[in-house]
């Protein structure tokens, strides 16, 4: 049995007459959780609640065993947070920004400096660390914010839009760092993002928040798995006879962007496909188990939430 690191029960958060969180129930288990939702869904508010930075109007919860609302400082000592927006004091160098963050978390200055260099090394920052942070590129600022979030060796990490504005190489490196922190250092992570391929690349679990409520909480493995065995096939040339024969044998084929998604009951669907390809002189270019599209799941969940009574 896995234990929940975070457990929320019917959390409500209002900003005056605006209800930002409307009865959030949530269990977060170890691993990497992707937090998705359209703008205004309540993601940032949920993160602020988890960090104990805003007072809730209803409900209760625990983060790493600490009560929300009563033990905010203890929670923040154990949780690392990388905000979406830049937050630094102009004139500080990159290493000073990270050291300042470590000191705020309670590390003595010398230890804070040692840890800061270690984390900036981990983030791949070279001598730029001695430049003032306002001269940094987006990629360097993201690295400094990332290092500041992990410098006090927190158990749990929350990254808000960590890959926003990064080029593909920087994005891949940052996702690799998150994966290393989880798989090798045993940290658990929430990553709030609009970039669905990032979720597909590294997450174990997906949460979809819409209109202040959790509309979906599921492992990525289950989400990816089609309800019936489905195989994605690409062929060279004409596939008309192939698709017709597949249909005659009781399978269903949908075609999108030249990729055939073949769905059937046979326990040996792949063998059946190869046999029919052979008998219809069809050359198979690629064949692999089909995955559900995270984008479709996201769109459908958000649309259903829009029409659901609140
Ligand atoms: P997301 O991060 O998913 O875009 P937010 O948590 O920022 O969503 O916002 C949820 C809702 O709460 C939005 O309608 C937003 O306008 C509102 N909101 C957020 N912060 C405040 C605030 N400080 N004062 C008033 N309304 C707010």
Key features of this structure:
310 residues; alpha/beta; Rossmann fold; Alpha-Beta Plaits; 2 domains; four-stranded antiparallel β-sheet; 14 strands; binds adenosine-5'-diphosphate
- Parts with pLDDT < 50 across at least 5 consecutive residues: none
The succession of helices and strands, N to C, reads: EEEHEEHEHHHEHEHEEHEHEEHEH
- Biggest pleated sheet: 6 strands, mixed
The beta-strand count equals: 14
Give a quick rundown of the structure:
With 310 residues, this protein is an alpha/beta fold. Helix content is 37%, strand content 27%.
SSE topology sketch:
Layout: E1 6-15, E2 18-28, E3 32-36, H1 43-50, E4 58-63, E5 66-67, H2 72-78, E6 79-82, H3 94-104, H4 109-122, H5 138-150, E7 156-160, H6 168-183, E8 188-192, H7 196-202, E9 205-210, E10 213-219, H8 220-224, E11 230-236, H9 240-248, E12 252-256, E13 259-263, H10 269-279, E14 283-289, H11 294-307
Parallel strand pairs: 3-8, 3-9, 6-7, 7-8
Antiparallel strand pairs: 1-2, 1-4, 4-5, 9-10, 11-13, 11-14, 12-13
Helix pairs in contact: 3-4, 3-5, 4-5
Bound molecules: adenosine-5'-diphosphate.
Protein architecture, described:
- The chain is of the alpha/beta class.
- The protein folds into two domains: 6-223, 3-Layer(aba) Sandwich (Rossmann fold); 226-289, 2-Layer Sandwich (Alpha-Beta Plaits), CATH 3.30.70.
- It contains eleven helices and 14 strands.
- A six-stranded mixed beta sheet has the order 6-7-8-3-9-10, sandwiched between helices.
- Helix 6 links the parallel strand 7 and strand 8 (188-192).
- Helix 3 (94-104) crosses helix 4, helix 3 (94-104) packs parallel to helix 5 and helix 4 crosses helix 5.
- The longest helix has 16 residues, at 168-183.
- The radius of gyration is 24 Å and the shape is globular.
- Bound molecules: adenosine-5'-diphosphate.
- Adenosine-5'-diphosphate binds next to strand 2 and helix 1.
- The site of adenosine-5'-diphosphate has 11 residues, from strand 2 and helix 1.
């Amino acid at each position: 049995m896995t234990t929940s690191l975070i457990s929320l029960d019917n959390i409500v958060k209002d900003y005056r007459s605006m209800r930002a969180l409307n009865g959030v129930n949530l269990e977060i288990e170890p691993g990497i959780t992707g937090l998705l939702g359209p703008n205004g869904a309540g993601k940032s508010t949920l993160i602020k609640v988890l960090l104990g930075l805003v007072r809730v109007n209803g409900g209760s919860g625990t983060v790493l065993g600490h009560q929300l609302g009563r033990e905010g400082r203890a929670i923040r000592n154990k949780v690392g947070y990388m905000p979406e927006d830049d937050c630094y004091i102009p004139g500080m160098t990159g290493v000073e920004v990270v050291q300042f963050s470590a000191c705020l978390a309670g590390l003595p200055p010398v230890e804070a400096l040692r840890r800061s260099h270690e984390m900036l090394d981990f983030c791949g920052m070279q001598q730029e660390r001695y430049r003032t942070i306002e001269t940094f590129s987006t990629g360097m600022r993201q690295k400094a914010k990332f290092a500041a979030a992990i410098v006090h060796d927190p158990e749990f990490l929350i990254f808000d839009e960590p890959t926003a504005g990064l080029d593909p190489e920087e994005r891949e490196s940052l996702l690799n760092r998150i994966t290393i922190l989880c798989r090798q250092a045993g940290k658990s992570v929430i990553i709030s993002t609009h970039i669905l391929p990032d979720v597909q690349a590294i997450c174990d679990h997906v949460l979809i928040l819409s209109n202040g409520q959790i509309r979906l909480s599921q492992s990525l493995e289950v989400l990816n798995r089609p309800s019936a065995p489905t195989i994605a096939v690409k062929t060279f040339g004409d596939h008309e006879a192939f698709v017709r024969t597949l249909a005659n044998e009781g399978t269903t084929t949908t075609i999108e962007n030249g990729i055939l998604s073949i769905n059937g009951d046979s326990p040996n669907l792949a063998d059946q496909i190869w046999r029919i390809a052979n008998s219809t002189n069809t050359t198979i270019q690629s064949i692999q188990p089909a995955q559900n599209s995270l984008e479709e799941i996201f769109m459908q969940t958000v649309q259903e939430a829009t029409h659901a009574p609140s």
